[in-house]
Amino acid sequence: MPVPVITIDGPSGTGKGTIAELLSDRLGWRCLDSGALYRVLGLAAERRGVSLDDADAVAEVAADLPVDFVSGRVLLDGEDVSEAIRTEQAGMAASRVAVHPPVRDALLQRQRAMACPPGLVADGRDMGTVVFPLAPLKIFLDASAEVRADRRYKQLKGKGLDANLPDLVEDIRARDARDRGRSVAPLCAADDAVIVDSTVMSIEAVLDRVLKEVRRVFPELVL
Ligand code: C5P
Question: What keywords appear on the UniProt entry (predicted)?
């Protein structure tokens, strides 16, 4: 029996990370935050003085990236980098290393290995198109760039951090353009994905919508 996988893809700021976590908790399944892998890789490459544009050198770092996910924390070489990888700069570095085909290849098996019983919720950009193309349920979460930037703005302000809304809109547009425009595994919905636009939806409403799909595809699950 193949391990059941639910993929949740989409651009940043759509709430897919939150939905993936809530859903995996509800199901008692494992959760893969693939964006965190690319973020850690960007950080590790920068720390080793490797140019983010050097595909082969970054792929070498990716091949034996000492990353661990422990109790919701992200460890790089044993150091807790959970906060360090959440900055806008780390997001941009992640998106730069993510354009290289050898880098994506180097991270592929590591991501697939996360699929173990009873199931996996996988969050990213290419979970449904490349990493788990046979997943029985694929969700693609979208929202306007303005709303996504506004959510990020409130999140940063809520943490007492400095934030500028026009800059955030620009950052989000730049990251989207790079993610959608790259030649390998570009950000796009799989043909068989269920598209959910969260622009005017609360997290609770999105979760309800996703749970409806989960019940449809996995009628045997008690939710
Ligand atoms: O999801 P998150 O914002 O943490 O992802 C950071 C960056 O990592 C994205 O902008 C994207 O460039 C890259 N990424 C990717 N493929 C994934 C997940 C993330 O290319 N599956």
Answer: ATP-binding, Cytoplasm, Kinase, Nucleotide-binding, Transferase
The answer to whether 13 is a known ligand-binding residue is yes
Tens digit of each residue's pLDDT (9 = 90 or more) over 90-140: 999 999 999 999 999 999 999 999 999 999 999 999 999 999 999 999 999
| Sequence-distant contacts of 103-109: CB under 8 A, at least 24 apart | 103/41, 103/55, 103/58, 103/59, 103/62, 104/130, 104/184, 104/185, 105/59, 106/59, 106/62, 106/63, 107/34, 107/37, 107/38, 107/41, 107/62, 107/65
Do 101 and 184 form a contact (C-beta atoms < 8 A)?
yes
The reply to whether ligand 1 has any atom less than 6 angstroms from the CB of 125 is yes
Q: Is the pLDDT of residue 202 over 90?
A: yes
Q: Which of 103, 112, 125, 148 to mutate to test the pocket of ligand 1 (most atoms within 8 A of CB)?
A: 125
According to CATH, the topology of domain 5-214 is Rossmann fold (3.40.50)
- Going by pLDDT thresholds of 50, 70 and 90, the confidence category of residue 161 is confident
